[in-house]
């Protein structure tokens, strides 16, 4: 599932290519991916312009010139591609939004959605999301305060969207590794020093992953050399059986609350 860095990478790329470009056509191949009647959706978007692209957690919010919003959640397997019909990957598309001869393809939205909403509806849809770890208002002190009273495993807390928005399986494991903490470490047992390491690790991993394009395998457009740049930078995620680059131990895979967990048992600890 695309997480904070993947959606932030998409936001940056989309902002360069579609802002203030008139929408010339709309195709919907799966009506379950949208929330209004097909003809209403097409009529509302055709001729409209997107004036701003915002990211909130794992969501993208497209601000339309008339004040309405398009709320996108790719969920599991979703991805975006921008280009011509000849360039696009050989995958089924659920929604296509044309900007002249180039089209923004929404693929893999079997579980995801693209909803046309008012400002208030958008705010309500995102209201339960927790704060962003890279928000300017976030700092180590506030981070520590948000952990007070929390119980359970570290990874379970990190992927809880009501605690912190945008982190999923991959980056929870990478953050835990960077902080030298086990994903299974009890949050209530973390020391002030380990909380400080955790905050620094989260900021570092999310920033670096966003800057080098996250782990999406398919480029956003022809000539895109950024998207997917983090694929080879993961230290533990999906690295079962490989050698830990920090201590030489062996990366293992286990399960926590039905989620895959990757970590090094040699250099990651409970504190």
Automatic annotation (TrEMBL):
Chain ranges of the FPG-type domain: 235-269
ATP-binding recorded as keyword: no
Reaction equation(s) it catalyzes: Hydrolysis of DNA containing ring-opened 7-methylguanine residues, releasing 2,6-diamino-4-hydroxy-5-(N-methyl)formamidopyrimidine
Keywords: DNA damage, DNA repair, DNA-binding, Glycosidase, Hydrolase, Lyase, Metal-binding, Multifunctional enzyme, Zinc, Zinc-finger
One of the Pfam families matching this protein, by short name: H2TH
Residues of the Formamidopyrimidine-DNA glycosylase catalytic domain: 2-112
InterPro entries the UniProt entry points to: FPG_cat (IPR012319), FPG_N (IPR035937), H2TH_FPG (IPR015886), Ribosomal_uS13-like_H2TH (IPR010979), Znf_DNA_glyclase/AP_lyase (IPR000214), Znf_FPG/IleRS (IPR010663)
Cofactor section: Zn(2+)
Domain of life: Bacteria
GO BP field: base-excision repair
EC id: 3.2.2.23, 4.2.99.18
GO molecular function: 8-oxo-7,8-dihydroguanine DNA N-glycosylase activity; class I DNA-(apurinic or apyrimidinic site) endonuclease activity; damaged DNA binding; zinc ion binding
PANTHER family: FORMAMIDOPYRIMIDINE-DNA GLYCOSYLASE
Family: Belongs to the FPG family.
Protein name: Formamidopyrimidine-DNA glycosylase
Organism: Paenibacillus sabinae T27
């Amino acid at each position: 599932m695309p997480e904070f860095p993947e959606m932030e990478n998409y936001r940056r790329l989309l902002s360069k290519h579609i802002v203030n470009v008139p929408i010339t056509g709309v195709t919907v191949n799966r009506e379950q991916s949208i929330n209004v009647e097909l003809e209403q959706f097409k009529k509302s978007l055709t001729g409209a312009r997107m004036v701003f692209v915002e990211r909130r957690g794992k969501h993208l919010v497209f601000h339309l010139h008339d004040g309405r919003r398009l709320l996108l959640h790719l969920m599991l397997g979703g991805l975006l591609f921008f280009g011509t019909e000849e360039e696009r990957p050989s995958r089924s598309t659920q929604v296509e939004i044309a900007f002249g001869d180039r089209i923004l393809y929404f693929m893999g939205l079997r579980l995801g959605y693209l909803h046309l909403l008012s400002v208030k509806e958008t705010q309500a849809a995102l209201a339960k999301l927790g704060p962003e770890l890279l928000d300017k208002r976030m700092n180590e002190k506030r981070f520590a305060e948000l952990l007070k009273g929390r119980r359970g495993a570290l990874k379970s807390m990190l992927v809880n969207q009501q605690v912190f928005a945008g982190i999923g399986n991959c980056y929870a494991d990478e953050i835990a590794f960077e902080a030298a903490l086990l994903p299974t470490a009890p949050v209530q047992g973390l020391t002030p020093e380990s909380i400080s390491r955790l905050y620094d690790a989260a900021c570092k991993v999310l920033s670096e992953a966003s800057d080098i394009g996250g782990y999406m395998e398919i480029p956003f457009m022809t000539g895109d050399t950024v998207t997917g740049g983090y694929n080879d930078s993961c230290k533990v995620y999906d690295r079962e059986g490989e050698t830990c680059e920090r201590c030489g131990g062996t990366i293992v895979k286990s399960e926590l609350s039905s989620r895959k967990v990757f970590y090094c048992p040699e250099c990651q600890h409970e504190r």
